[in-house]
Structure formats: C-alpha cells, structure tokens
C-alpha cells in the first residue's frame, strides 16, 4: 500500500487560507464558500477539499475516525496530519462520506454540560452544495442566519441528517458539520443552527 506524503500542501499558508473560509462559514451557517483546489492527492475515498479541511483542523493532539473506515485513508490522514485514529464514539473529528447510511452516527460524542466543546466535528463529503438544486433541501435558522437560509445538498443521505438533528436537540450539546463538495464548495452547519428538512431524497 502506497501512502502519499503531501509535500505540496503548505501547512502554514494553505491552512490559514482554509481556516479563514471555515470561520466565515461557521459564523454564517449555510453560506457557501469556495475553496481553491489544494495540491493534494488523497485516496479515492476522500476528496481533496475535504483532505485540505482535515489537514487544517487535525494535528498531533487530535483524533479522528472515518465513515466508512478503510486502511488506505486512515494511514493517509495519520501520515499527513499527525492525528491518531480513534474509535468513532471518542473521535474528535469524523470524516464522513455523506452518501452512505451510517446508523453509527447516533453514538458520536456530543460533549457534556461542563465541556460542550468536546462534541465531535464532522467533515462531510457530498457531491454538490448549492442554495437550490437537486438533493436534500434544508432550511436553516438561528445565530448568524438572517431570517432563513436555504441549502441543497446532493449526495447526503437524509438518514444521516436526521441523526445529526437528534444529536443536536439539546444545545449546547451536539456536533458541528463542515460540508465540502467535489467542486470546492464549503458550508457549515454548527450545532447552534436549527435545521429543517424541506425535501427528502433517497440515499
């Protein structure tokens, strides 16, 4: 198994650029940002934009899990971030292929009342993110949203979003989502955001 070491990804400037966009996305849930294509060559199961987000958030003091799990992707993330693989229920970051149906999401860490920030962050890969279009259609309300924000996610299994809604039903406990698509679009759904599913699709 050949695992690529990403020498072309700048751990200072590339991560700063991605982090600024993520901050803006988290502050304005549902706002769609556009990532420049990073010079990354991950295994086929991970899109390069999601890998760039992962390398921005993960370091040697963090843990992660993959859904679905596979050896090549796990070694790739470990080698290039210094992070360690962990059981799903204890992982701080989850890199998720949104197209799959994963009942295991119900067991993610939501933090506790003393340390709600310990709730997991999901880096969710979908096919396409838009304000309108095909796929799962959401309406968002809450802090950072001016009235209502609409979001259409192609390639996100509705059952996963239902599980996230249950995980986030007792704010400040819950999980946060960073969504990336295959063209570099990025959006965030922090746990403070009230998400309503307008239109369901099949997985």
Short key terms for the protein model shown above:
globular; 11 strands; 23% helix; 7-stranded mixed sheet; 203 residues; alpha/beta; 4-stranded antiparallel sheet
**Arithmetic mean pLDDT:** 96
Question: What is the 3D shape?
Answer: globular
Give me the secondary-structure category. Answer: alpha/beta
Approximately how much beta-strand content do the residues carry? 15-25%
What oligomeric state best describes the polypeptide chains here? Answer: single chain
What are the segments in which pLDDT stays under 50 over at least 5 consecutive residues? none
Helix content: 10-25%
Rg calculated over all Cα atoms? 16 Å
Task: Going across the biggest sheet, name each strand in turn.
Answer: 1-10-9-5-4-2-3
Per DSSP E runs of 2 or more residues, the count of β-strands stands at 11
Tally the helices. 4
Give the distance, in angstroms, between the N- and C-terminal Cα atoms: 31 Å
Topology as a string of helices (H) and strands (E): HEHEHEEEEEEHEEE
Main β-sheet, in a few words? 7 strands, mixed
Chain-wise SSE layout:
Blueprint (H helix, E strand, L loop, with lengths): L12 H15 L5 E2 L13 H10 L5 E5 L3 H11 L2 E2 L7 E5 L23 E5 L2 E3 L5 E6 L7 E6 L3 H10 L8 E5 L4 E5 L4 E6 L4
Parallel strand pairs: 2-3, 2-4, 4-5, 5-9
Antiparallel strand pairs: 1-10, 6-8, 7-8, 7-11, 9-10
Helix pairs in contact: 1-2
What does this structure look like?
This protein has 203 residues and is of the alpha/beta class. Helix content is 23%, strand content 25%. It has 4 helices and 11 strands, in the order H-E-H-E-H-E-E-E-E-E-E-H-E-E-E. Strand 7 and strand 8 form a beta hairpin. The longest helix is centred in the N-terminal third of the chain and has 15 residues, at 13-27. The mean pLDDT is 96.
